[in-house]
Amino acid sequence: MAGIKALAKETAIYGLSSIVGRFLNWCLVPLYVYIFKPAEYGIVSYLYSFTAVALVILNYGMETGFFRFAGKHEDSKRVYSTSLMSVGMTSAAFILLISLFINPVSDALKLPAHPDYVWMLGVIVALDAFSNIPFAYLRFKKKAVRFASIKFLNVGLNIGLNLFFLLLCPWLDRHCPQSIGWFYHIPGGESYGIGWIFVANFITTLAVLICLLPQLTGFRYIFDRTLLRQMLRYSWPLLILGVAGIMSQNMGQIIIPYLFPDDAEGARAMVGIYGANIKIAIVMVMFTQAFRYAYEPFIFARDKARGEDKTRAYCDAMKFFVIFGLFIFLAVMYYLPVLKRFVSPAYWPGLDVVPIMMVAELCMGIAFNLSLWYKLTDRTVWGMYLSVGCFLVMLALNLWLVPLIGIPGGYMGSAWAALVSYFLMMAVSLMAGRHYYPLPYQWRRMSLYALLAGALWICGEYLLNFPAHMWLTYASRTIMLSAYLGIVIKCERRR
Question: Residue 18's pLDDT band (boundaries 50, 70, 90)?
Fold first, then answer.
């Protein structure tokens, strides 16, 4: 149980930086959707989906590989410096290539008029990929507070710059243009629009890299080719896994513009609506991410232990993940009428994707928990099979459902495709794990908790919903949310 307490403590710290940080960044979404039309915001959502894929490619599984080899190698600094130099060289090469071929890349992304957007995001993603290794080193050394501090700085600076460029600068330009004209008018001033979002991100990324200098200096750099080959053999399936996984996660935003070539404006509007509404469901993603930050070092550290304590720790981690994941689902769905106010009414037609994506992300989180069996047995190729399978199923469902539904609601096809694909990946991972690394997960108990949460959601949504007296609705839902926690706590104490 001590291991679970340590995991919970680190998850809380990482969660503070991840969940609170992402929440604060999420608060920028209302700003974006009230300033920009769905088609304009659609470009932001579309481009960031591609950068998410590029980030995974540029990391090529080295983050997890670092944890695996640093934990068992006698010289963790050698592992760290080898990882750092490898990712550093590939990131530098990426910046060079995207600078040389910026126009063809912009054309391929259907943004020939905005190569500056593409170049800025290319540099951002390369620097982020490089920064992930020192961030991983902080996690390995259990310096969660420093990790969280830099992440908070990242978020705070990004928010501040967004407010500066999108709100303050237009006001200053109208009342005191000489104060900002030296930089503001160069790209076009207020007419540069969403471009200022990328400028803010660019500056923030550089600032984070500067903050990580203590993790990049003060030691001797050693590039061990033999060690790198071993790490790449371990990590290359994780690259395929990661690329397929992140493309699955961003499938809707990536594929919709290519499915409606005759109505580019309508397709971008769909991407904007879909992207804005899944930001409401991102609370589940943030929880999963926070858990992942603490869980990977945890499982590799616990792998050295023996006996029932290790097995029980893995099983308890899964159970508590499900418990808190279901609580987050209920909380978001119960207070969705309030949360939807964070986006413009023009985006409300897409609210139906929220419960679907919440359940989909919960399934994805469970699948991540189940992934420990192929990571601990060095069968990472299984992760590749599962992720590629999930990607292919999701791609096929998107190609079928999105055009079938059409404009303007085709994004619902993407949401259902995500749920079906993640559920299948979770189920297959469970069956394979039972064969290669069987663990006594408490599936019966977790299933009962899921049924309880489902029943409470239906009750709050349909039986105790009073549109004319919303205060009564929220009071009833708050009581039911408390009842869920009370029942779970009581059941766990009886264990």
Answer: low
